[in-house]
């Protein structure tokens, strides 16, 4: 898969637009096919876009603190809609208040996210991990 | 929906008012007349307009944090701790309420009760309703402002003003382009005319509510001329509806000379455009927002960024400064961190209070550039308005005459591209459709070219990205690594 399809967006009622633009630019420059839904994206909009484009991964951003509420149930909803194997990443300031990142990451992994990133994640690392994860999920590879 | 600039007729206002109050059950508890009686009983030291007026007369800079949590008791405790250190109090509203998603805010309140701590990033004032909001105002001894980011704030304003809040932030452009994805300007301008008309009704009863257009916009490398133009246009729209106490805002950009010049010209140009439009019975004050972009994660480094904002506000004699916290990079701060932000700012504001920024040719040049840029944008705005300023605002955004960098709205042109110059001042790399005199644009280009020579690279989007991250990575100008 030379051009993996990924869906990007900022979940819930969050309108932080700057990071989203930069992720779009970065992943596009790394030859992903980026489907960017922008800010204020609902769970169903992420899933609809992933189904329509046959995406391998959904990258959810949240910077305003409501991530815990907005992301709850996303994995189950993906499975209900037939996206059993889709890769789910989440990153940003995911909870209210300064909490230990390890605890936040554990909480979101329990919610069904494959990987969890802080607001200062190195995008080159995200790129490397994403390629690994996509390769691993590919049947007969 | 048609929008016109003239003052909304009382009948038109009252006709839409019933529908507004019915959008959530707490709207039924809004009692305008009781609210007005309550406001008349508020002592001046607890009311925004007189406190801002007095600070302006004394030439001092007041301190105001941002703060809001899900539950009423918790929110009152938070404000009672903050008021020990600050001059003006906020009530920051959560992001669900900002999008009128009151059912989701209700769930957030419920989940916060169960979790024992706030899961919302602000205070859901509409859900709590006028009586609970009144408790908040009654429990503190300083003026309290509603701060939010709501394209349609009609019900929020009804609830908050009836409850006794004495200041209300926002405007039809500044709370649309940076805070919404697909709300047409026609709609947000119309809805903010309603808010301003409501404030006008209180004013007619002798109750002055302070209004503050949101200065920083996207908070990301916004050139002063853009935020000034938005502030002046929103000020004119508010004055027309009967608003009389206006605080114009600006988000710190980071270069001290440019930031001081920006606050000076904001006040000067605000007065000039308001008076030219025939208004003379208003009060104008200013606010500087400490750096609104990305912060360093290290709390000591964040403290330095906060202090630098305090310095700019004090030297520019902004009437108030909105403080950040050492937790900024991690999101919503604890009470302790919020207090630290205020204390850091208080120390530097007090130390700068007796010092002035000497007049200097570099500052004159910055001020002259901002004046000329704003005048050119306003000239295009008035031409598009063709006598109707509300229509002018809509057309100016549509035409990209007003263009906010990095705004999420689909209705924003998004063609203007800013970046820093060699000394960190925000300049315009691509002007898009924003009108600029050729020699002024050349000034911007020359400054950016000088930086490009220093960095031995061409100006471009990578430079902009580097600037977006620079402060969080420890410096002002996004220099290339290696």
Cα-atom radius of gyration of chain B: 21 Å
CATH architecture of chain A: 3-Layer(aba) Sandwich
SSE string of chain B: HHHEHEHHHEHEHEHEHEHEHHHEEHH
Mean of residue pLDDT values of chain A: 95
How many helix segments of chain A? 6
Spatial order of strands in the largest sheet of chain B: 1-8-7-6-5-4-3-2
How would you characterize this protein structure?
The complex is a heterodimer of chains A (141) and B (482). Chain A has helices spanning 18-29, 43-53, 67-71, 74-80, 101-110, 123-137; strands at 5-10, 33-36, 57-62, 87-92, 115-117. Chain A is of the alpha/beta class. Chain A has a five-stranded parallel sheet, sandwiched between helices. In chain A, β1, α1 (18-29) and β2 form a beta-alpha-beta unit. Chain A is globular, with a radius of gyration of 14 Å. The N and C termini of chain A lie close together (10 Å). Helices cover 50% and strands 9% of the residues of chain B. The model of chain B has no long low-confidence stretch (mean pLDDT 97). Chain B has two domains: 10-352, Alpha-Beta Barrel (TIM Barrel), CATH 3.20.20; 415-482, Glutamate mutase, C-terminal domain (Alpha-Beta Complex). With 482 residues, chain B is of the alpha/beta class. In chain B, α7 (125-138) packs parallel to α8. Chains A and B meet through α1 of A and α5, α6 and α17 of B.
